[in-house]
């Protein structure tokens, strides 16, 4: 099957991984740490080996394989580069976002390179590391693409400055695999033989971990957090139990070149190694080169945002109409001008804009001000706001519309032209301003709460439309002392609620480092928490065919209303997915009926011909033999010839390839619960014969 060239540039689904100190220690033991470097193995003052990074996002390699449709039979991990931005904490959640950036063609019979790049963020908000991973597909060359640019590493012609000898144990892969890479090649003697090796081989990334420890011990002893970059090429396989040495040349301040050599054979196992090290970069988040628009920035919260954005390097458009608290009056240039003057006096860059966000021309003009003055727009904070509180019966249409016009239409008017620029440049950060009153309700504010909640709806769709273009859209619900709240908040509280307390959250959501989109945060006085719609697990009242009675709703209202085990959805598809799942055989069984095991193996083969795609089978002549072990298993084969498919029980005389699987794993794979690639790399799916032909299955059947 050919490489999927369309996968280049398409973001992977974000990968999240929770980990604890025990995962950190298990990895350290897997790469040979022990009492001699107890800092990596003891939870007291525990330190994380920086190469733990790639082990903990190992699934990204699977993503690269899956999305590129590389031929599994010829896959090797070619090169690995890691750039360390911040030390890895000993526990937390990592979120990884990435994509395939390049596919290079080395030529027919010489293979192809698929390069995947990803950024990993910690739940503490810090960007931890960037991984650039090159997968070599031995069997995928000749697709007509460009060859990869040459990367030369010239080693000094002298003795190395350090040689670190190690002796990985003969059982090393058995420990290392527990950190994530459970590919059978490193554990299963039969599988290893089938793949052409005497016995299971070391994981390349395990040897890489040994090298990382060696580099730290030699160059920055006891300070793994000073590792800045580690790059290398995997050049030869290694059997467990073979002694190795990491040879290191210091080439300049903060930089070394390195190799790992099999001490017994003299073979270079890892080549072209580069290691850079130095002080941990300062954590300051900057906006240099970024252009920000803040609406309503002449006072209150908007002013605090504008000043801090400019202090951190952004060029700022300070928009403010300068009207009264209820939006009345002709407006005045003074508030926006004063903020611009303050920014300039402090050495920053800013321009004033006095347009009204409530009109479409005003919105266009605000964005035009950014384009004219600074050439682009990267950041937009929709902050302008007014209040016209009245209890509902007294809420006249002019009060209703005035508030909706500024908050909701205002956000629409400015965001639309700004979003067009961001989409074009494939970068943007947008912050909406809602309110706790909108999220939870407040007497006398029907106009304001309706508008504020509508902004959450605007964000919900914009986050989806912006996702592909790295435009992140989030919302804050601030609480701060300002003109809007001076007679709303009790005086003692008012004193404590400086707008500057809100700035860190609003500005972090505008930063490149921001890993989230579509989230809502309550912010005030240094207290920050996320607010979300939780959806409860609900209750299935009928089989989906007959209409339930009203009385059924009444009887089940407790269950229907329960938010126990509720969860937030990212989009409507997740919600519909749960709706469909509620009627799956498994759910029906959980509810006390139906077939617990889902479709049987025989059922799957019985309906396999229905999912055959004849249009994809022109010229294909292939026989897939299945040997399914365990309960309900047996032998089946599918024969495809002249765009027709026959499915038969039993054994075929001349299968093109044979797929061996346990019945449970097979049903999981065929019902979409177990990705085929994962089944293969974990050894749950064994393929004998022509492995390349087996990859046609995905093309020929709608699985
Ligand atoms: P503020 O009254 O101090 O600042 C709002 C600014 O927006 C004013 O300078 C005003 O001239 C400007 N503005 C109003 N209408 C405009 C228009 N049509 N075009 C351009 N500029 C306009 O108020 P504050 O407290 O700083 O509010 C900022 C945002 O935060 C508002 O959206 C508000 O609803 C929201 N908010 C504030 C809370 C608080 O506790 N202060 C609570 C919840 C939400």
Main features:
703 residues, alpha/beta, Thiol Ester Dehydrase, Chain A, Rossmann fold, Nonspecific Lipid-transfer Protein, Chain A, 3 domains, ten-stranded antiparallel β-sheet, eight-stranded mixed β-sheet, 22 helices, 31% helix, 24% strand, binds 1,4-dihydronicotinamide adenine dinucleotide
Structural account:
The structure is a single chain. The chain is α/β, with parallel strands linked by helices. It has three domains: 9-144 and 160-277, Thiol Ester Dehydrase, Chain A; 291-531, Rossmann fold (3-Layer(aba) Sandwich), CATH 3.40.50.720; 601-700, Nonspecific Lipid-transfer Protein, Chain A, CATH 3.30.1050. The chain is 31% helix and 24% strand. It is built from 22 helices and 23 strands. Helix 9 (360-374) packs parallel to helix 10 (397-425). The longest helix is centred in the middle third of the chain and has 29 residues, at 397-425. Residues 588-596 have low confidence and may be disordered. Bound molecules: 1,4-dihydronicotinamide adenine dinucleotide.
Task: Give a concise summary.
By secondary structure, this protein is an alpha/beta fold. The chain folds into three domains: 9-144 and 160-277, Hotdog Thioesterase (Thiol Ester Dehydrase, Chain A), CATH 3.10.129.10; 291-531, NAD(P)-binding Rossmann-like Domain (Rossmann fold, 3-Layer(aba) Sandwich); 601-700, Nonspecific Lipid-transfer Protein, Chain A (2-Layer Sandwich). It is built from 22 helices and 23 strands.
């Amino acid at each position: 099957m050919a490489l999927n060239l369309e996968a280049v540039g398409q973001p992977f689904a974000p990968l999240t991984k929770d980990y604890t100190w025990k995962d950190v220690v298990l990895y350290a033991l897997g790469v040979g740490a022990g009492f001699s470097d107890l800092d990596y193995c003891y939870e007291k003052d525990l330190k994380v080996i920086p190469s733990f990074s790639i082990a903990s996002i190992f699934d990204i390699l699977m993503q690269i394989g899956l999305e590129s449709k590389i031929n599994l039979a010829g896959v090797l991990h070619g090169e690995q580069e890691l750039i360390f931005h911040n030390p890895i904490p000993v526990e937390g959640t990592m979120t990884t976002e990435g994509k395939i950036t390049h596919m290079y063609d080395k030529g027919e019979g010489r293979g192809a390179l698929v390069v995947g790049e990803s950024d990993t963020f910690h739940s503490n908000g810090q960007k931890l590391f960037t991984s650039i991973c090159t997968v070599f597909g031995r069997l995928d060359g000749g697709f007509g693409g460009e060859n990869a640019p040459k990367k030369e590493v010239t080693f000094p012609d002298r003795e190395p400055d350090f040689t670190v000898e190690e002796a990985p144990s003969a059982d090393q892969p058995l420990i290392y695999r527990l950190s994530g890479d459970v590919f059978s090649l490193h554990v299963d003697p039969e599988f290893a033989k089938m793949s052409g090796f005497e016995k299971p081989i070391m994981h390349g990334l395990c040897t890489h971990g040994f090298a990382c420890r060696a580099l730290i011990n030699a160059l920055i002893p006891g300070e793994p957090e000073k590792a800045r970059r580690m790059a290398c090429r995997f050049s030869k396989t290694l059997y467990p139990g073979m002694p190795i040495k990491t040879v290191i040349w210091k080439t300049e301040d903060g930089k070394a070149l390195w190799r790992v050599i099999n001490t017994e054979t003299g073979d270079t196992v890892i080549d072209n190694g580069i290691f850079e090290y130095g002080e941990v970069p300062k954590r300051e988040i900057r906006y240099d080169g970024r252009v920000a628009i803040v609406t309503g920035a002449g006072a209150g919260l908007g002013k605090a945002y504008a000043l801090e954005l400019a202090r951190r390097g952004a060029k700022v458009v300070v928009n403010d109409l300068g009207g009264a608290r209820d939006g009345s009056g002709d407006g005045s240039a003074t508030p926006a001008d004063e903020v611009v003057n303050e920014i300039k006096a402090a050495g920053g860059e800013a321009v004033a804009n006095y347009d009204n966000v409530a009109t479409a021309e005003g919105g266009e003009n605000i964005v035009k001000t950014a384009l004219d003055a600074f050439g682009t727009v990267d950041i937009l904070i929709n902050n302008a706001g007014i209040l016209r509180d009245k209890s509902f019966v007294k809420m006249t249409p002019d009060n209703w519309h005035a508030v909706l016009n500024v908050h909701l239409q205002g956000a629409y008017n400015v965001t639309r032209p700004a979003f067009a620029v961001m989409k074009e440049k494939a970068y943007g950060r947008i912050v909406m301003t809602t309110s706790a009153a909108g999220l939870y309700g407040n007497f006398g504010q029907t106009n304001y709460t309706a508008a504020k909640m509508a902004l959450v709806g605007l964000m919900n769709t914009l986050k989806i439309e912006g996702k592909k273009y790295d435009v992140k859209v989030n919302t804050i619900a601030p609480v701060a002392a300002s003109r809007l709240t001076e007679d709303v908040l009790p005086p003692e509280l008012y004193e404590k609620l400086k707008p500057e307390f809100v700035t860190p959250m609003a500005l972090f959501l505008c930063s490149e480092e921001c890993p989230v989109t579509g989230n809502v945060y309550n912010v005030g006085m240094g207290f920050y928490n996320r607010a979300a719609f939780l959806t409860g697990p609900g209750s299935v009242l009928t089989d989906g065919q007959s209409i339930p009675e009203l009385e059924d709703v009444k009887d089940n209202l407790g269950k229907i209303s329960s938010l126990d085990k509720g969860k937030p959805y990212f989009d409507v598809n997740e919600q519909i997915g749960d709706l469909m799942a509620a009627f799956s055989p498994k759910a029906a069984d959980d509810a006390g009926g139906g077939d617990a095991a889902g479709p049987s193996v025989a059922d799957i083969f019985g309906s396999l011909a229905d999912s055959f795609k004849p249009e994809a089978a022109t010229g294909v002549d292939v026989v897939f033999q299945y040997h399914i072990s365990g309960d309900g298993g047996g032998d089946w084969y599918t024969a495809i010839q002249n765009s027709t498919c026959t499915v038969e029980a039993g054994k075929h005389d001349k299968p093109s390839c044979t797929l061996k699987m346990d019945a449970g794993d097979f049903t999981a794979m065929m019902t979409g619960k177990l990705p085929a690639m994962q089944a293969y790399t974990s050894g749950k799916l064994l393929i004998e014969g022509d492995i390349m032909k087996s990859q046609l299955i995905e093309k020929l059947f709608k699985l």
